[in-house]
Amino acid sequence: MNKTTSVFNHKTFVRSSVRRFGAAAALASMLSACAGAAVSPTGAPTVQTATDRAIGQCVATVAGGAIIGALIGKDRKSGALIGAGIGAGACAVLLQVASREDKARIAAAEQEAIRANASRTVSFQTTSGKKATVSTRVASVKPPKRSAPVVAAAPSTPTAAARPAPVVTAAAAELSYTACRYATQTITVDGQSSDESKQLWCRVDTGDWQAVAG
Q: What pTM does this model have?
């Protein structure tokens, strides 16, 4: 092989690799879009739950696998699909419910079970037309403590005309949640079940329940 042919083959390989990477990147972007942000049943952003995080991690894994597969595959299509298949693995179930609408239904099922303090199982049709069953087990736990800044009055000044504004001190007061419960979710699609996702929920002073780290 002469030098000219070698250079030509190298350029061809580079162009081919770039095209494969571009196709895989597009696939990765599409998969990542499925993850999105955590949403409430009304569509408003909220704190990510354990199930939300698990879905996001699966989507990221598959997206990364698609890029690697495309770079080492014999062609763009098969390489990307092989990589995506390698990345899916145990995430296959969660990828079936990764759309915004499906995640909102799962979140609603979790919140309803938490508020009712009762384990529940609900089923719905996914955006892809498959039947998904969501089982949520609820268990009460001792509430952890949380901290909030202490607001204290500013020191008085010689100027009587100006009322001192409150300032936030460095001290912190320990506030207690009124109640806490764990929600453990399992999702089943086409006879396959996901790993359990365990999320701590606590009721705040307003009476609302919120997902917290625990």
A: 0.61
